[in-house]
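Practice problem: predict the structure.
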Amino acid sequence: MKQNVELLSNKAQSRLTNKLLTLALAAFTGVTCLASVQPALAQSDDAKRFETPTVFQAAGPSAASIQSTVDQYRAALGAVNNGNNPGQTSGHREINWDGGSPTNATTSLSGTPLATFLNTRGANITTRGSGFVQAPPSGLADTFGNSSYTTIFRVFSPLRLFSPIGSNVTEVGFSVPGSNGNTPATSTGFGVVFTDVDSPDGSRLRDRTGNRHASTLIEYYGTHGDLLFTSNAPASPGDGNLSFIGVVFGDARVARVRIIAGDVAPGPNDDRKDIVMMDDFLYGEPTPY
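Answer:
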């Protein structure tokens, strides 16, 4: 009887030993598989190391108060403005909403997407609202039915400003200029001139916790929809003042930007809610990826 018990004990020990060896082998194999995957992850776009971009920002009561910062940003992107010229590999692009003339005071309405600059400058501009307006302040007042807009907004480059209609959100995706949107591209950075970003401590609106949040900002996204960086526009309290925010990365990794201009879509008075318009867009030359 004692011998049988010992044999049973030995068999149990053997089974336990084999089980432990099996578990150990499985665990070792799992680590090996994980290690074999890591090099592949390291080669993917999603695995790019996080990089804090260089941020350019300025705010003040006139175009002159932000001009030097805008010029520094142009140089950081690549000093040459490529205009509508295709086939470029350096420099930058700009959109100033003036229709090629600093005396253009017409009001232009368009739907979404706004494809005017898709082929010429590689920018596909969309909104979740009904469309866009390009107009001087008086035209904005007529478009949004608010006479105060004639005096509370100021231009950076004459004579027109830009805004979505029915939304405060604008998105810009990039493609190679000259490809009519058929060749996706990325940019090293993107900047915007805003007018009438009022609140020095963020939005006049509060969230559910009672905290203020920034009324005006740009979100930068990579090729897989990953959020790369968020940058708030500096405020300059007082009607018609101007603000500029732009960032530059060390490489072309920005595939899309999301611009939130003000607390809400234009229309209401600029008192309890911060209403913001946009002027110049500046961005690094879109390059294929």
